[in-house]
# Entry
Amino acid sequence: MTFLLPELKEKDYLKSMSMTICSVGSRKLTDAHDYGSQDWELFAPNLTIYGFDADADACEFANADIEARQVNWKEKHFPYALANKIGEATLYVTNSPICSSLYPPNDPFLNRFLDLPEMAGSNFSIEIETTTLDAICQEENIAEIDFLQIDVQGADLQVLEGAANLLDRSVFAIQIEVEFSELYLNQPLFADVDSYLRKKGFVLFELEPMARRFRSSLFSTRHPGQVLWADAIYLRDPLQDSCPDYFKQPEQLFKLACIADVLDFTDYEIELLEFLTVTYGTGDRRFNFADLLVSNFAKVPELVQAGLESLPTVARLQPFLSQPLAKFLPS
# Structure
């Protein structure tokens, strides 16, 4: 649930902001995969969504669905298999096609768990053409991507490696599936992905782990099974010296704060908006968010009861308020 984004939209803060989402493995299985129908829609009509999936039928369905819905944002799905090079590769098709991968399933390991063989077990393999995200962006004149989502069943690091140039000049946030055990033979694991992204200047913000039970008659209610994979979220941190200078510009800091809002990192959003206010708010009113922040703090009964003036953030914002703090308190 967003914190400030609807009000920022209402007050035209988002009017000149473009937002580009790229989803690799973009087959729409649930509403969670339909980014335009989520809070990202607040950036429309300046919202652009690109989807990539090796399944041409899934891309055709997604494009037809978008056309039929007459949405107020731009969205296009491309039938490409993305990897770390342009060439040929083997696609290992699994019992459930959504688990297919550029790596062969680790059947002996999968067979130890409930339900996994029925989903990710080996079925057949085919030869396919692969390309890279960098190559496609150049071919399709995609200058930048702000939010990158990757879910390609073990080959996620390959997609990142094929987007090295893009990551160096763009991308504020990444949501990526990572594995902690080899569900697919010789696949990169979380440590490999984490190391690569940290070298690219990203910081891990969250892991949402998924555990699976072994095929045993009894199991613990405390530990639901072995953690095999997770959704990981990485963000830029422009307040660290190591972050590339591009992301430290005030316009980019503001965009990052908006992305943090969509991803429900409210504390980080507030920190960035406070930094913008204190650093740039005096000389440029576009980056003075003191009134906006304090007025929304005043809507939280617990904060009012504790005393807004006692909050460190409010104390730092007070010199930038357009009126005395008491004016923001409920009567």
